[in-house]
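Hi all, long-time lurker, first post. I run a small reading group and we've been trying to get comfortable going from sequence to structure in the token notation. Rather than ask abstract questions, I figured I'd post a concrete chain and ask someone more experienced to write out its structure so we can walk through it together at our next meeting. Sequence below, copied exactly:
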Amino acid sequence: MVGLYLDPPEKALVLCVDEKSQIQALGRSAPVLPMMPGMPQRRTHDYIRHGITTLFAALDVATGEVFGSIHRRHRAIEFKKFLTKLDTQVPAELDVHLICDNYSTHKAPAIVKWLAAQPRFHMHFTPTYSSWLNQVERWFGLLTDKKLRRTAHRSLYALEKDIRTWIANWNTDPKPFTWTKTADQIFERLASYLQRIPGAGH
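-- Answer (accepted) --
Happy to help. Here is the structure in token form:
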């Protein structure tokens, strides 16, 4: 899987795929007061829940472009709809390599059957407890920090509209993520960490 990042195949698109579930539409009991000179942003701590939604997203490793699809649930049915949508959006002459985690939705019989009928799609699973290898997780972090935490929504419709707008704005000037450490540096850091854990490696 790491080879897809370091040396992606020709005539292929490498996409980091996952879903951000349980996104809550939270309405504050009072409007958020914006940041002003010498005054931090202020918001109430109580809120009203207006429901939850799920964002399925695929990050193009090469360009940073994001393909998104919003659904009210996050079962295999919705994931299959997302894959079908990707199939229509990616040029037919390109193979599609998907990097995703081992969540059961990604391995459901309906998904396995769909992939078997779509030979240009190839699924690559990250190791257990290694979600940091999936770059779309970093993008989800930006969505949360830059948008979701800073806004209030009085309905699911408003929340979903905001997410779609965020994706559209991101894609006007997408930026791919780049690794800042070499593989050797990561292994050295990991070895140092394991030495501090009793029984690690045994």
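A couple of things your group might point at:
The chain has one domain: 2-195.
The chain has a mean pLDDT of 86.
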